[in-house]
Design a protein that fits this description.
Rossmann fold; UDP-galactose 4-epimerase, domain 1
Length: 292
């Protein structure tokens, strides 16, 4: 299969591209800079220059391939709504290019938070929650199934971890260094779902290859890791105390830290025979690469 991958040089994309190439697929990766293009080429893929605002490039890439994995997202939390709108336009262009072909379109969202239990693939995000905007965009992609697109969505958990991760856990490490203490919000009992980046990449490949139209998939290995447990490992590795702190001390991450948001992937595992094999989040933290 010839697959068009947006976000091909990003954190998850840099694992998805080699996963696809190793499985015998040919990859066309979207790249918006020379450095991104070099990374895509080094991973064994062809390069299409463009970005999320270049709808002509997105349309051309999708039309030139047998399927699409859409990973790109503008991670600017100061302009999050604008990022969500750009994502919606990109998904619209990709879906339109694939209409009537039966080709796969795999898009990305986040796992929802459901009070009192682990979220499943059948749940949706509460209106106004951080994940709701991307859930709405995913729904746009899923709606294209009625127009001849084999669309599916992979929902990523709060942490996609591994060596080289610069996401939420890396932010917690940096915040601990700045504050002189490794913190958590409230009693730290709130839980984060997590997955190793290689396991997430394998799920994207399985979705591209065979997810039924309209599938919602959860890339979740750890159903819920208590935030206090994450803070304790960080504190031990940095030689810092661990203590509760106000949500404001964590910037944009404070509100997320305060919410209990475990998620299940039982339906995904059964549907696509996906079984995570990478280290769990706490095991990965203990390896020490987040503290170099």
């Amino acid at each position: 299969m010839r697959a068009f991958v947006t976000g091909a040089s990003g954190w998850v994309g840099s694992a998805v591209v080699p996963e696809l190439v190793a499985a015998g697929h040919h990859v066309l990766g979207l790249a918006r800079s020379d450095s991104s293009a070099a990374a895509v080429t080094a991973a064994g893929a062809e390069v299409l220059r463009g970005d999320l605002d270049d709808l002509d490039a997105l349309t051309a890439g999708a039309a030139d391939c047998d399927g699409v994995v859409h990973l790109a997202f503008i991670h600017d939390f100061s302009r999050f709504e604008a990022s969500v709108q750009a994502d919606a336009r990109a998904i619209g262009a990709l879906a339109a290019a694939l209409e009537g072909t039966g080709k796969p379109l795999v898009v990305t969202a986040g796992t929802p938070a459901v009070p009192g239990r682990a979220a499943t693939e059948r749940d949706t995000s509460a209106p106004g929650s951080p994940a709701a905007g991307r859930d709405a965009n995913a729904a746009l992609a899923l709606d294209s199934a009625a127009r001849g697109v084999r669309s599916s969505v992979v929902r990523l958990p709060r942490t996609v971890h591994g060596e080289g991760d610069h996401g939420f856990v890396a932010h917690l490490v940096a915040t601990a260094r700045q504050r002189g203490a490794s913190g958590y919000v409230g009693d730290g009992a709130g839980r984060w779902p997590a997955v190793h980046v290689r396991d997430a990449a394998r799920l994207y490949r399985l979705a591209l290859e065979g997810a039924p139209a309209g599938s919602v998939l959860h890339a979740v290995a750890d159903e819920g890791v208590p935030v206090r447990g994450i803070a304790e490992v960080i504190g031990r590795h940095l030689g810092l105390p661990t203590a509760s702190a106000p949500a404001e001390d964590f910037g944009f991450l404070g509100g997320i830290l305060a919410v209990d948001q475990p998620a299940s992937s039982a339906l995904t595992r059964e549907l696509l025979d996906w079984h995570p094999t990478g280290p769990g989040l706490l095991e990965d933290l203990e390896k020490g690469h987040y503290f170099g």
